[in-house]
Design brief:
The structure holds 2 protein chains of 2 kinds. By secondary structure, chain A is α/β, with parallel strands linked by helices. Chain A has one domain: 3-Layer(aba) Sandwich (Protocatechuate 4,5-dioxygenase, Chain B). Chain A contains 8 helices and 10 strands. In chain A, the strands form 2 sheets. Chain A has an 8-stranded mixed beta sheet, with helices on both faces. Chain B is mainly alpha-helical. Chain B has one domain. Chain B contains 5 helices and no strands. Classes of the chains: A alpha/beta, B mainly alpha. Chains A and B meet through helix 6 of A and helix 1, helix 4 and helix 5 of B.
């Protein structure tokens, strides 16, 4: 059976690729250093495939038909679509076996995800996937989530979906080592008068909940409250889903930087999968040895 | 006539310029907006790349962001354009001390 050997979440501001140098060096190094450490772990663990969860930014779906969840079940997907994003536009291999197993398992266990045999992947997945595998050859099962167009699936249901996603991966007998990655958030505003603002207080509070294993404290958060940390903060659902995959276990926040030029509270958190990943497991390669969460208090 | 039509027109314009699996991303130049059922004001906003008008009309904020980027607005510039429409936030979240 497959094992989730790597589980982490990362913010996905497109500027981490398109305006990389615009961020102050220390902030950039802290954030990207955490992703580099995870990349090294993925190579050491010989990850065979990855499942990525991210927001649908009107790249595949529009108002005629907008699924809350869509699993990419095809043999390949395309990305990135943004003409200005400096990542090669390529076909990315999917993993049909794992993707269809996720579909079957979640349909049998209380969810009705849509599926797609060919997704177009935007910065939401591609920025973070590229930091994991710049060759873009690692088989990828994309799961696009509605984090932008009301009505949205409530946060607690994303946690429950994550639990079923974890059970699906762990009951798949076609692979042994799988990574699960959530992409998006934390606080940011787009397309409105507050674009550029960052709510550092929310970001640090949310990261503390992850580190303490207190994800239950966010599961009843209504959309109106989530939006106090920005309309882009709905993407915290991707983090909640991965927390569900990991059963609500505490996570290690490897980096948190409110990066103004990237208009986003940029964080990386990782769960201990029992394979030596995360700070709790003693792995500090390339990442901060102490939690960065309380740095601004 | 409906906000849906304006959202659809802007969405199609954005996508026409992207590098999708079946398109090279050069489709914005000849984009025909006349096939959408827009009001005069909506058409004027589209032709003028008027981000402030889009915001006031209620265009989806994800589309405003993508449109602004594709239309060449620097982020700071489009914030300045939208800032006059901001309202003070009085609500508080559970994380606020």
């Amino acid at each position: 059976m497959a094992e989730v050997v790597l589980a982490y979440c990362s913010s996905h501001a497109p500027m981490m690729s398109s305006a990389r140098e615009a961020a102050p060096k220390e902030q950039r190094d802290n954030f990207l250093g955490a992703l580099e450490a995870i990349k090294q772990q993925a190579q050491e663990l010989d990850v065979q495939a990855c499942v990525f969860l991210s927001n649908e930014h009107f790249t595949n779906f529009f108002l005629e038909n907008f699924p809350q969840i869509c699993v990419g079940v095809g043999e390949r997907n395309w990305g990135p679509t943004e003409e200005w994003l400096p990542i090669d536009k390529v076909w990315i291999p999917g993993h049909e076996g794992l993707a269809n197993h996720i579909m079957r398992h979640t349909l049998d266990n209380g969810f009705d995800p849509a599926f797609s045999h060919q997704l177009e992947l935007d910065h939401g997945i591609m920025t973070v996937y590229y930091e994991l595998d710049e060759d873009m050859k690692l088989p990828l099962v994309p799961i696009v989530m509605n984090c932008a167009v009301p009505p949205l699936m409530p946060v607690w249901r994303w946690y429950e979906f994550g639990k079923q996603l974890g059970a699906a991966i762990r009951s798949f007998d076609g692979l042994e080592r799988v990574a699960v990655v959530g992409c998006g958030g934390l606080s940011h505003w787009i397309g409105n008068p507050r674009v550029g603002d960052i709510n550092e207080e929310f970001d640090r509070w949310f990261c503390e909940r992850l580190e303490r294993g207190e994800i239950d404290q966010v599961l009843d958060m209504p959309d109106s409250e989530i939006e106090l940390a920005g309309n882009g903060n709905h993407e915290m659902r991707t983090w909640v889903a991965v927390a569900g995959v990991m059963g609500g276990a505490p996570a290690d926040v490897l980096a948190y930087e409110p990066i103004a030029p990237w208009i986003t509270g940029m964080a990386v958190a990782q769960w201990d999968t029992g394979r030596g990943t995360g700070r709790r497991a003693g792995n500090t390669a390339g990442a901060a040895p102490k939690s960065p969460v309380a740095a601004g208090d | 006539m409906s906000l849906y039509q304006l959202n659809r027109a802007v969405y199609d314009w954005i996508r026409a310029g992207e590098v999708n699996s079946d398109a090279e991303g050069d489709g914005r130049a000849g984009f025909d907006v006349s096939r959408y059922d827009l009001t005069d004001d909506e058409r004027k906003a589209f032709d003028g790349k008027d981000v402030a008008a889009f915001y006031q009309m209620g265009l989806h904020e994800v589309l405003i962001n993508r449109f602004a980027r594709a239309a060449g607005y620097a982020r700071d510039d489009y914030r300045k354009i939208l800032e006059p429409f901001g309202k003070p936030e009085e609500r508080r979240g559970r994380w606020q001390k």
